[in-house]
Structures are given as structure tokens and as C-alpha cells.
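Escalation from tier 1.

The customer reports that the assembly of two entities below gives different C-alpha cells on two consecutive runs. Tier 1 could not reproduce it. I'm attaching the input and our single run for tier 2 to review.
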Amino acid sequence: MRPANDTLLRALLREPTEYIPVWLMRQAGRYLPEYNATRKRAGSFLGLAKSPAYATEVTLQPIDRYPLDAAILFSDILTVPDAMGLGLYFAEGEGPKFERPIRTEADVAKLAAPDPELSLGYVMDAVREIRRALANRIPLIGFSGSPFTLACYMIEGSGSDDFRLIKSMLYGRPELLHRILAVNARAVADYLNAQIRAGAQAVMVFDSWGGALADGAYQEFSLAYMRAVVADLKREHDGERVPVIVFTKGGGLWLEEIAAIGADAIGVDWTVNLGQARRRIDDRCALQGNLDPMALFAGERLLRAEAARVLDSFGNPRRADGRWGGHVFNLGHGISQHTPPESAAILVDEVHRHSRTLRG
Amino acid sequence: MRPANDTLLRALLREPTEYIPVWLMRQAGRYLPEYNATRKRAGSFLGLAKSPAYATEVTLQPIDRYPLDAAILFSDILTVPDAMGLGLYFAEGEGPKFERPIRTEADVAKLAAPDPELSLGYVMDAVREIRRALANRIPLIGFSGSPFTLACYMIEGSGSDDFRLIKSMLYGRPELLHRILAVNARAVADYLNAQIRAGAQAVMVFDSWGGALADGAYQEFSLAYMRAVVADLKREHDGERVPVIVFTKGGGLWLEEIAAIGADAIGVDWTVNLGQARRRIDDRCALQGNLDPMALFAGERLLRAEAARVLDSFGNPRRADGRWGGHVFNLGHGISQHTPPESAAILVDEVHRHSRTLRG
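Tier 1 run:
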């Protein structure tokens, strides 16, 4: 059954809506004092992510504060390689790391897609618990890292400035990287399908690092494997369509190609002009984005103006030919931990207010 | 007088050439053992950059090793704000920093464009000394950071992941940022003109961080000020045209707009498809790029194949209508310090070899 507020799902599926729905990447996060309090109780980020009770608590926090049109599962993009046995950990004050990165052919040969019901059960438990807590007021979005983005961390062992290890493999031993990516694509599809079975009403694939690839390499090593994931997804559950969003940060140059892989919606960062993007793909997919998260550091008047500018750039989703495009308002990247919480309230208000004026 | 090998200048000006010229961003750098030896003698990076004798020595090192088609002045992109009194320094193992970043309206009010002959004389001395050492075999490229990129460091005080300080100003106090950028544009134009008078035969504006801006903000806060710089440049010296290259890393979405600011050539990073880029701007500017520097970590066979792919993507610079486009081969970003020096030799050889086969 569709949620009471199904505006997000309708926008993703390019059905008519009364206003533009909005959610914020990383909306359950460190800019919220209540999140920091829960995290303190949990002891660590992984303590939060691996506990269905805590994950539910923090997933609901921004929903209780703001009239957002979707909740997104609180989890980490690296749960899948962790379940593959690579040993995810967070060093204090640093990003995610793996204890056992993939460096040799023998490491690659050992890789296998994990059974998500067995080794990622804590995520499915969280999905079910969040759905109960939401009581179908708004939809819940599930997510995963993209096959390429997972491979970046799996091979580099951490974040990277230059992706030297994975790109050395890409340029020097492409067949090895393809083997890793094939396993990852299988694992990501299985993982997202398990989330859908557990109750995720839309899913998003985060390709955080595909934009670091060269033209040509992006299509071969990132986009092709997102296409494989999308092709294997369960697109309907309990009689409802489950929309799929793909988001390559820095992927604006490849929009036409991204629009052809079969996803319902494309996330875009703030470098993209939404009006041009819409024309380039002729509304074949919905677009999700794309305010610069740093606009939340402007005062109220200029923040409202920036939000309105993003909405105006997309324009009226209803086309002259009677078809509908789809716009889901979001940031172009995760909300900054330094964001004043009241700025998020202003933003959500302005998106709802201004987008109603675009209908007509 | 044009240099004995003027292939680079001809390609930048879209005149006929026999092959595609090549140089490498950061070609005088830490991947070369002779560079590290000189740097050790100089004591520090700034010790190198501020000594005309050392700067000449390291500028010539890659020229002595490889048959490159251009030399580029060894310097830092932040010499201009250093001359403004901000106090450039390098903390061990970190990027550049400023002792006195711009944080208040009073800081902004004090900013003024420095006289490059007075406060950046060491750069002009280096240009003159390098020209003497090159004996006009190949051209010397001068350069500066772009007004926006300089402002990033001036306001953040260092590199940044999220550009929170400068973007808070951009979104919250745009008029203040415009004042800084106007000073920077004046300073950059004066600086590049002084380099041209001292003997730089082409100049390049590095907009390393413009690609971090949102669509709209890029045009207003980075591109507009590069346009102002280009408009104020001396385009001819000693009877020869002085070509101008502008390079916004991550600026591929804005190529048409970049092509309209009056520069001769546009640098592009590896996310851009050169063939498409050429069609988008209809060869109104030359293009410089765009191999992923990480391709230099492939073995010889695959490195040669990648270099050929980049050349083929641009294709024959001679158009069907008889006009010429211009291609200057380069990396899409600076060469990595971990690059095997012999890979650079293979790359230069392949560019020269393969590009001759594209003529016909």
C-alpha cells in the first residue's frame, strides 16, 4: 500500500504531484543534536548502524523535526564489503577503512557476494523496524553504494585523493577489476532486493566516486555495473512499483547515458543545470537534486532565494505536451555536519511553499 | 621570434601542425629524482619557487629528459596572495596555507592588487632566466591561479574539502566575495602581463576549484573574473601572439560558456570526451588535455593504448571544411609524484608517434 504521503514516489515515477517532494541526503546526521546524543549512547557510528533499534531512532529524528517527504534508512554505504569479510572500521576523526583491503589476485579470487539475509540481517531488521515506526506516513528509501564506489574503498582500503590503487588496476589489470565489479554488482542487487523485501519503498544507488573516472572508463567500470544492478532489481513489491534512483556525483556530463540504464530517477549534484538536464534527457527519468549544501549557511532570505532558483531551474514538472517530468528536491551531496538545524527547516518550508506556485 | 619548435603555439592558435604537441602539468615535479635532489638543496618548495636559479634548474629538468613541446614556469599558484601579504607557507606533509587568511570585512577592505614588478620580481627573474636557458628551442608557458581559486585559499586559509568558508560568504555575503574577486582579477592580469613582458610565450589560468561551484555560481564567481583577466591580457608581445589557456578542473559541463570568454584554448580534465567537446564548441578554441594521470601506472602497452585513445577521441585537427581545430596533449591534472619517470617517456613518444598517423 502506498504511504499516506506518496508525493516522493509519484515524483520519482513521473506521476502528477501537488508540490515538489524533498528529502536531504544524510538528513539523519551530525548536524542534529539528538543524533549526536544517540550516537554517544551507541558508542560509535558502527554501533548506530549495526543496531536496528538505534538505526530506527536516528532515521526517525529528522522526520519528527521537519515535514520531509521521505525517510532514508540509516546505514553505511560500506556494509556490503564489510559482509564480504573486509573488516570495516572507523578510525577516530577519519573516514571509513578496511582492515583487509583487496590487493592481490588471491584476494580477488576469494571474493563472493554475501547472502544479505544471513550476513546483513541487521540492515533488514532495521528496515522492518523503521517501517513499523513510520506507520506508512511517508515512504522509506533503501540504499547501497555502487559497485565501483564499493570497489574504491575495497581496493584503496580507505578514502583516496587520487584513487591510485584502483586506477592502477583499472589501467594496468582491467580484467581483475572487472571480476571485483561483477561480484559487487551481484552483491548490491541482492542487498537492495533484500531491502525491498523487508519494506524499502524506493532504493538509491550512491556512486560517490564514479565521477573520478575518465570518460570511457566511467561507462565501462561504473555505469555498466549500475546497469547490471538495476536490471536485477525487484521493481514491484506488494503490488507497488519500487522506484530506483542512481546518483553519480560529478556525473553531469554523462546524463544521457545514465538515463539509458533503466533507473526511474537520476540524482545530480549542484554543478548541473536542472533545466538543461531535463531537456537533455527529455524527461525520460525524474531528476533528484541539487542545492549546494553550503547554501544552508546563507541567511534565511538568500537561502530561500537559492532554493527557489533550483526549483525554477527545473520548472513546472507538467510539460506542454501533458506528460509529466519528475523533480525530487534534495541537496547535491550530504548535508554538512555544521549546518544550523533551523536552516533545514527553512529549506523544507521553501521547497513546499515555492513549488506550489510553479503549478498551473 | 617564435621558438624553433613552435608546435605548441600553433596548436593553441589553431594553425596547422605536423603532430600533436605535448607537455604535462607539473612536469617539473617530485616524480623526477633530479627534482628531489634540487629541492633538497633548496631546503623547501618555497625555497625552490622563490629562487630564480633553482626555478630555472627544475623547469629545465623535464625538458632535458623528454622531447616535450613546452616548458612551464616552475612556481606556485599562490604567489599572488603571498605578495598581497597573506603569508604563504607549507606545513610539512600538507598543502599550502596562509598565515593571515581573509575573514572579516576589514581584511577585505585592506586587499589590493600588488605591483608584480616590485613584489613578484623573483618570478619575472625566473621567467627571464628560463628563457635564456631554453634559448628559444621550445616556448615557455607562464601561469597563475584563477581569481576564484586564489580566493578559495585566501579565505579558507588552506585547501578544503567542502569550501565552507568561501561558500558561506558566496551564499551569505556575495558582495564581499565580489570585492575580493575584483581585486584578484586585477592582480592576476597584472601578474600575467608582467610574465608576458618578461618572456612568457603563452599563459595559462588554473581554475583548480571553480568546478566545486554550483551552476550559476560558477559563471558569476569564477568564469566572469577569468573573462575579466583574459580581457586585460597583453595578447601580443615582440610581434608574436601570446595564446591564453583557461582550465577549470571539473568544468566540462560549462564548455560552451568557457569558450566564449575570449581565451585561445581550454584545458579539460579526463571526464570530458574530447570529440564531443570539440563538437560542442565547434573548434572555436583549442582543447588541451586530457589523459587521466593514473594511466601512467599501466604498463607500456596499455599506456600507449590510452594515449592513442585520447588522441583518437579528438581526431584529426584538420576539419572537413579546411579549418583547423587545435589539440594540445596533456594530462587532465598534474602528474602524480609516484609516476615512474620512464612512463612519461613512453607517453611523450606515443603522442608524437600516434598523432602523426592522424594526419591525412
